[in-house]
Amino acid sequence: MKKLIESKWDEILSLLETQYDISNILIKTWISTLKIFEVKDNTVYFYVDERLKQGENAVKFIHKKEFDLFLLSSIRETLNNIDIEIVIDEKKNFVKEDDNTNEAKVSESYNDAIIRSNLNPKYTFENFIVGDSNRHAHATCLAVADMPAQDNFNPLFLYGNSGLGKTHLMQSIAHYILRNDENANVLYVTSEKFTNEIINAIKNHTTDEFREKYRNVDVLLIDDVQFIKDKDSTQMEFFNTFNTLYDNKKQIILSSDRPPKEIKTLDERIISRFECGVPIDIHEPDYETRMAILKNKAERENLKDIPDDVYVYIAENVTNNIRELEGALNKISIFSKLMNEKVTLETAKDSLKDIINKDANIKITPERIISVVCEHMNISEGDIKSKKRSQDIATARQIIMYLLRKYTVLSLKSVGNAVGGRDHTTVMNGCKRVEENYNKDEGFKNNIDTIIKKLNPS
Question: Is the peptide bond before 259 cis (omega within 30 degrees of 0)?
Fold first, then answer.
């Protein structure tokens, strides 16, 4: 049976990607590295490859994300009546979940490293909720954390709207690296702090001290890099710091609210450097992910006696920002304590009435995008899904593809299916063409902006 599973291994991994929508990077990082060392009593025993470095934590992570269940389902496509167990190593050390799996047992030196690196103790992988909107980013960050400064992942560039978890993911990488090596020189800064330090160093003739600080780190994380000032001297110092770290095989991790090519304030050579690594986008969380985030926060902060219909109300009405989502839950909890009232759906609505405006809050769904674009461009939905290729229909189809990728969490394959079964390459090319026309054609840009306003008139 072991040989049979090994011979079907590539097919099993393919099923994980096609049927369960687990990203290729995630599969390569956490699943394809599993090794079979024993088959006994219809149970296949896998052990964690030593490259994951975390042993017990790696196995707990695999269980927590239910990768073992997805793997079991894929194996049963080939072999019925099979069970699996995932263990630490070939000595068959099993890991059982307990109530403290999310509590980091950290040493004093590790706490010192967190403070020295400017990290938030809560921003770890264990506290990050994975969904379709951030699955690719999460998997990539895990890969970078496990093997920093690899050419394919350096620099790592995370982009997306504010409040979607970019800072959390960035700092999760730093925590992971410090857990494995407390002596690693890791530094997290905002772009504002980084820029101000450059300006002050130039002004005070202390650039040697600045370079000593920033060019001798093992991992540099800069948040909201789009705010780096566009003065020549500032950008020159930033560019040289970037190059020094990159040439010395040090990991660089950056975040922005937009992809590199859309940051107009930075030199083209800097943008080119950003794009040579891995630009990864993060989308707004879907409903299931929002529910998971709320319940995870409630569990971590011991917020009890919150009815399910309150979670549903928040998740359905706060859709675009994780910070606002968690803030809404905090507000409900505080409001309840101040008023000395039990949390109910009515008290939740009352406490959130300044945040949630039912009349203005229109959810942008795939169906709404298709409907609004077709109405605006006077194209029928049937034409969008047909094989017709006239200019007006092709343009409308490409705009729909672009907006589906921008405002929903649909995969490339799902976007293609929504517009008549186009393949992922067609979707990518269509989105690229819309982006190019948006940036160079003012009339086209105004047309897209008008459609976006119709999608969400608030």
Answer: no
Between 39-43, 340-344, 442-446, the lowest mean confidence (pLDDT) is in 39-43
pLDDT in tens, 295-320: 888 887 777 778 889 888 888 888 77
Q: In whole angstroms, what separates CA 55 from the centre of its chain? A: 24
Task: Kindly list the distances between the CA atom of residue 302 and the CA atoms of 296, 298, 315, 348, 420, in Å, as whole numbers in the listed order.
Answer: 10, 6, 19, 18, 47
d(CA 316, CA 361): 10
- The label of the residue with tokens 């494995």 reads 180
Do the beta carbons of residue 66 and residue 179 sit within 8 Å? no
Q: How many CB atoms lie within 10 A of CB 423?
A: 11
How is residue 170 written in tokens? 């960035």
Contact in structure between 259 and 281 (CB atoms under 8 Å): yes
**Single-letter code of the amino acid located at 402:** Y
For 154-213, what is each residue's pLDDT tens digit? 899 998 888 888 999 999 999 999 988 888 999 999 988 888 898 899 889 999 999 999
Prediction pTM value = 0.58
How confident is the model over 5-38, as pLDDT tens digits?
A: 777 777 777 777 776 666 666 676 667 777 777 7
For residue 174, the surrounding DSSP H or E stretch is helix 166-180
Give Cβ neighbours of residue 144 (< 8 Å, ≥ 6 apart): 150, 153, 156, 173, 251, 253
With cut-offs at 50, 70 and 90, classify the pLDDT of residue 57. low
For residue 256, give every residue at least 6 positions away whose Cβ sits within 8 Å of its Cβ, in sequence order, or none: 157, 158, 159, 224, 225, 226, 263
Closest CA to 400 of 423, 378, 367: 367
* Better-predicted residue by pLDDT, 62 or 205: 205
314/349 Cα distance (integer angstroms): 9
Mean pLDDT of 281-286: 83
Nearest to 412 by CA among 44, 36, 17, 74: 17
**Which residues 6+ apart lie within 8 Å of 135 measured at CB?**
21, 22, 23, 26
Is residue 166 within 8 Å of residue 255, measured between CB atoms? Answer: yes
Cβ–Cβ < 8 Å for 271, 261: yes
Q: How far apart are CA 223 and CA 256, in angstroms?
A: 7
- Biggest CA pair distance of the chain: 72
Q: Which residues of 36-62 are buried (b: 16+ CB within 10 A; e: fewer)?
A: beebeeeebbbbbeeebebeebbbbbb
